[in-house]
């Protein structure tokens, strides 16, 4: 659950300085880890903890910095093993593996309940900073989000800065609804012309989304051609905006599909997405559309929303989802004509 902090100018300065300090410390810890072959977290703590305390970090903040660095290297090694950073010997792979991991000054910093406490009635938080503990830092969120925080917040929260605005990303553990045994399944076919097509007749038309992506692609080309500092800043800003737009559309599509399944008592049948970009053969203009849409994100949204609603989800061979969806629509049309 993401909430927006609305600190005073003095509080904002303290939060900004804290993020810069902990991420600068994380870069130093990353250098130590890289130099020593990325030892285990316990070994890394022996080499860095005292120095982090000297830099003004509290005990818990120092522990979180060390763990953040160790987790970053764990993710890097997993991506290298999976080939996500290119084949052995490729420039991208060598670049990623040949230098320490660097952390942006605004990168997220985890907080546990010892460093961060929530006052839900007043909608404020008390948070640790390098300048001391800040009390009464206000946050803003929707009424539904506040209910979720009160009922289900648990564990760590991340402090992050985006474009000068501070956010807390809180972890909420929501219990799953009791899953009903469905008699039938709604087939969901993912594609380019229509982002999602279901066997019940729902189509998430891709025309507007594809038009939006083409506009963004053309703008990126112009900015990349300029290659000035301001153009690069605008590229990053536009990239974040496009990701938010895609995530919002995926949320809407997933909610529509899950709501229909919950209302009718059906399950959801999704196509297996693993390797979708490798097995699909398209012309060059269509490849841009294929690679620019977050199909896996849409599937993840459908799965987690279905688990919350108690709707069963199964993954099937993608070769037959389109046929099943078309056959189901044809049968329903025939039944409707017979009744007429």
Task: Give the secondary structure arrangement, pairings included.
Layout: E1 2-5, H1 9-35, H2 41-54, H3 59-82, H4 91-97, E2 109-111, E3 116-119, E4 124-129, E5 132-140, H5 143-152, E6 153-162, E7 165-172, E8 185-190, E9 194-198, E10 203-205, H6 207-226, H7 229-264, E11 267-271, H8 276-279, H9 284-292, H10 295-309, E12 313-316, H11 321-339
Helix pairs in contact: 1-2, 1-3, 2-3, 6-7, 7-10
3D architecture notes:
The protein has 340 residues and is of the alpha+beta class. The chain folds into two domains: 1-175, no CATH class; 185-339. Helix content is 54%, strand content 20%. It contains eleven helices and twelve strands. A seven-stranded antiparallel β-sheet has the order 2-6-7-1-5-4-3. Strands 10-9-8-11-12 form a five-stranded mixed β-sheet, sandwiched between helices. Strand 9 (194-198) and strand 10 (203-205) form a beta hairpin. Helix 1 packs across helix 2, helix 1 (9-35) crosses helix 3 and helix 2 (41-54) packs across helix 3.
